[in-house]
């Protein structure tokens, strides 16, 4: 039994940390994924629109439970873009995002907490 426990301990010691991470880091909607704490953000940039999908502890955050906005910085100019409820758990805006922009994402939950991350567009 002791040898078995030693083998398990050795295996776990050398396992990659990503195995223990929360949240799915694979894009589910064709966007770019970032993680901040226990929150996973997926930003989908379309030619004339943007979509944001948020999950917290592997559970989708519905627009009914939070509000979301973007702060887009490009060419020295900062623009605030409020997101509205889209289909399913999407936050959406009819907004073209400029190439190379820095996009800050802020999600405010009904309980008063908020979380954020930043994307750098190619």
Automatic annotation (TrEMBL):
Q: Which domain of life is it from?
A: Bacteria
Q: Which residues form the signal peptide?
A: 1-21
Keyword field: Signal
Q: What is this protein called?
A: Copper-binding protein
């Amino acid at each position: 039994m002791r040898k078995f426990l030693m083998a398990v301990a050795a295996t776990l010691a050398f396992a990659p940390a990503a195995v223990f991470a929360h949240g799915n880091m694979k894009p589910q909607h064709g966007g770019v994924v970032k993680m901040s704490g226990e929150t996973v953000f997926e930003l989908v940039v379309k030619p004339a629109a943007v979509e944001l999908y948020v999950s917290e502890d592997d559970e989708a955050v519905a627009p009914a439970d939070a509000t979301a906005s973007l702060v887009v910085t490009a060419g020295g100019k900062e623009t605030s873009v409020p997101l509205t409820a889209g289909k399913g758990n999407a936050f959406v805006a009819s907004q073209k995002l400029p190439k190379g922009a820095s996009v800050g994402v802020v999600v405010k939950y009904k309980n008063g907490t908020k979380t954020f991350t930043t994307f750098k567009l190619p």
